[in-house]
Amino acid sequence: PCFGAVLQYLRGGQGKLPSGISLNAPANQVSANNHIFPGFFAGALGSSYDPLFISQDPSAAGFQPFPVAKEEEVERFERRRSLLAEVDLRRQEIEAGATGIKGYYKQALDLVTSSAARRAFELSREPEAVRDRYGRSPFGQGLLLARRLVEAGVPLITVNWARDDAFWDTHADNFRLLKNSLLPPFDRAFSALIEDLDQRGLLDETLVVCLGEFGRTPKINAAAGRDHWAACNSVVLAGAGVARGRVVGASDRLAAYPATLPVQPDDLAATIYHLLGIDPGTELRDREGRPLRLSHGRVLHEVFG
Q1: What are phi and psi of 139, to 5 degrees?
Q2: How far is residue 16's CA from residue 154's CA, in Å, rounded to a whole number?
Q3: In which band, very low, low, confident or very high, does the pLDDT at 103 lie, cut at 50, 70 and 90?
């Protein structure tokens, strides 16, 4: 299960908002031919613990991922909630099969009818200068929205790189794409998030993790691109007591393989859970009651100041 699903399982939602929210959701959840990528969902815990996926573009004019509910519509939703409760009382024989659906209904109704939850998604409340600082890209506005959700008490927010016309999978024309299309909006948004969290006094209690799922080949291919490379890649951590400017682990001179003791993905997972206040050795139970250990890695204490 992903981090947000684990938090939803262990701690439940934060008021009307779930514990895990994924922004720019189509970036990696669903790709061509409707193929579902694993790793973004609740997995063995069951789909009722999936993060809340927001697919709408936060940089689009009038961004509002939830239907606008007028006062009379809120009353109608509440009547429908009561009706659903009555129906459920008479469907005890299929309660197990309807549990996930009930959860979705409750989450949807809570979001539609809660002014506080909806307000967290209202980017129009941000000053224009702040929105410009983050950049008017899906990623930039997604990071700004993430900061608002942190302020609203959501413990785990994932901001994906939206599937627009600029992809990081640069098998061809790598250097031009990085210089002109990819790095400018990324650098602008990422630096804005760090500065904004710091200025608001939130950085010390917020962990920012920036990573992809693998590195790129140290050798440039015939199309001036770099292909997939699993042996070595970099991750950036900021905030939550992480020492500024510290490097943990190093590669060889070609950035091909680790030159020091490797940091494993499980180590990173253990560190994230540790900072979330969750023992990485915690055992969850799937729907069949089988034990599932969160992480077999070690907490990277050397990253802290």
Answers
A1: -70, -45
A2: 10
A3: low
- Cα pseudo-dihedral 172, 176, 181, 186, rounded to 10: 100
Helix %, strand %, coil % for the chain, to 5? 45, 10, 45
Question: Measured between alpha carbons, how far is 140 from 130 in angstroms, rounded to an integer?
Answer: 11
Contact 142, 164 (CB under 8 A): no
Q: Which two tokens stand for residue 52?
A: 């809340």
For 134-186, write each residue's pLDDT tens digit. 999 999 999 999 999 999 999 999 999 987 655 899 999 999 999 999 999 99
In this prediction the pTM is 0.85
Structure token pair of residue 66: 């939830």
- Token pair 């630096």 is found at 191
Please give the C-alpha separations between residue 58 and each of 4, 54, 108, in angstroms, as whole numbers: 20, 9, 19
Closest by CA to 296, choosing from 305, 279, 285, is 279
Residue 93 C-alpha from the chain's centroid:
36
The owner of tokens 């904004």 is 196
